[in-house]
Amino acid sequence: MNEQTIGIIGGLGIMGRAFTQLFQEDNLQVLCSDINTELTNQELVRQSDIIIISVPIDQTIPVIQEIGEALTEKQLLMDFTSIKTEPIEAMLQTKADVIGMHPMFSPPMDSLTNQTIVLTPIRDRRGWLSLVLDYFQKKGFKLQITSPERHDEIMGLIQVLIHFNLMTLGITLSRLEIDLSEALEYTSPTFQIELDLIGRIFTQSSELYGTIPMRNPFTRQILEQHTKTLDTLREIILKKDSESFKELFEKTSDYFQPFKTKALAESSYLFSQLVEFNGKQ
């Protein structure tokens, strides 16, 4: 991508800044437009070969529509959005080639090596995908290629179900008025890591963590199943039904069988690192 100019709309945001720095470290030509920049989105499009949209989810389609008429068949249009089906449909209404992109991390990060990027290439008449793959593979990223629909289905599990569960735990703790400082005095590594993950979410944007589940097309069916599971487990626990609990637990254990060894190894490593980290504080 050494010969292309990369334009990032929303380049002053957290993700936009991270990728601007990444590209500039390789001496790539990068242009940025944002709310308070002199360079407008339209001007950026006219001066760029690759246009990346890095704006909040609710603004993504309006931005695509804003610049759509200015895009040509010689350009590549990409986005950093956490959902893909709707933005991709909007991008396909332009003349540009289209490759959706979802960085599966949130800056700041100590290292981008082995961080995952999901790509959803839909229209690639000029061979952009090979350039994109070559660049990010050389930078040490793990790349996953899929369809927009499959992306949104998987994100329903990774971002909707997991985030929803962590937010539920955080809200429950706050409503129980638990003294976190006191609780941490009794903590196990498992509880501390769980609490760290909850706290990490609530240090970030409510707009982001609200918009993702609200816009993902698979949210309803995932949350309906989650509610059914909570109701089932709640009833078993309150009835002190040990046999039903054992049956449900063992059935779920069987589901996780291929992952158990990896899960134990990775969690044990995290626990040991956390204990060592705490000892230095």
Notes on the structure:
This protein is α/β, with parallel strands linked by helices and 281 residues long. The protein has two domains: 142 residues, NAD(P)-binding Rossmann-like Domain (Rossmann fold, 3-Layer(aba) Sandwich), CATH 3.40.50; 130 residues, 6-phosphogluconate dehydrogenase C-terminal like domain (6-phosphogluconate dehydrogenase C-terminal fold, Orthogonal Bundle), CATH 1.10.3660.10. The chain contains twelve helices and seven strands. A seven-stranded mixed sheet has the order 2-1-3-4-5-6-7, sandwiched between helices. Strand 4, helix 4 and strand 5 form a beta-alpha-beta unit. Helix 3 packs parallel to helix 4. The longest helix has 28 residues. The model has no long low-confidence stretch (mean pLDDT 95).
Task: Give the terminus-to-terminus CA distance.
Answer: 44 Å
State the CATH class of the largest domain.
Alpha Beta
Supply the CATH superfamily name of the largest domain.
NAD(P)-binding Rossmann-like Domain
Biggest β-sheet description? 7 strands, mixed
What is the domain total for the residues? 2
CATH topology of the largest domain: Rossmann fold
- Contiguous low-pLDDT stretches (5 residues minimum) are none
Class by SSE composition: alpha/beta
- Number-wise, the strands total 7
Order of helices and strands: EHEHEHEHEEHEHHHHHHH
* Rg over alpha carbons: 22 Å
Q: Hey, roughly how much beta strand do the residues contain?
A: 5-15%
Arithmetic mean pLDDT: 95
- Strand order within the widest sheet? 2-1-3-4-5-6-7
* CATH architecture descriptor of the largest domain: 3-Layer(aba) Sandwich
Count helical runs. 12
